[in-house]
Amino acid sequence: MSQQDFTLNAVVRSDDQQGKGASRRLRKQNLVPAIVYGADKEPLSVSLRYNELIKSLQNEAFFSHILTINVEGQEAEEVIIKALQRHPAKNTPMHADFQRIVRGQAMNVTVPLHYVGVEDAPGTKEGGIFVSNATDLEITCIPSKIPEFITIDVSGLAVGDSIHLMDINMPEGVAIRELEVEEPFNRTVATMQAPTLEPVEEPIEPEEHEEGAGTRSTEDDEEARKVQAQDDTHDAPKSDDE
What we know:
This is one of the proteins that binds to the 5S RNA in the ribosome where it forms part of the central protuberance. By secondary structure, this protein is an alpha+beta fold. The chain is 16% helix and 33% strand. It has 4 helices and 13 strands.
């Protein structure tokens, strides 16, 4: 885990500040409703400063770090962010869920995946297409071991190769939650697909004709005109002057 420090300031929400209508009024005051829960304590409803939260959300590490929430009039809370609700059109934060941590106690955290070595992979040089099937991963570890992200080296992938969960090199003390369950599923997280080839249209060759078929020479045309002229002379009616 990096040494970045994320601190948010909050105030406790009173009973009349609960519910959808109250939450809308808070957002108009540049406050974001949130809840803090876990560690065998009562859930705590708070309001966060919108600008502080927006600034923190711009940093990817915010989602995989231990955060400090300074609650006015109470002890500071050590938490991780578990859920963030955003406006469907504006993408602005509307509500946040934070889980308290207990030092030394393992917990489940979702961290980003970073793929490296794509350009150096043999499959890429052969025209293959790298496809990632996962952008983050749920892990299990104690709070002090939470990594900022998980790095996956794909520089050895050839066309047709894949990387599965069991292929990922995890930091010491960090486990993949999906592989810790009773029936683990070793799913694929990345593949190097074969290049897509566009069909090549073959040129259409003209049909071959037998020699002389369907064609007439100039001499044939001239002979036909002479024969027709003779026929016309024989068939023409004679005039009275002849």
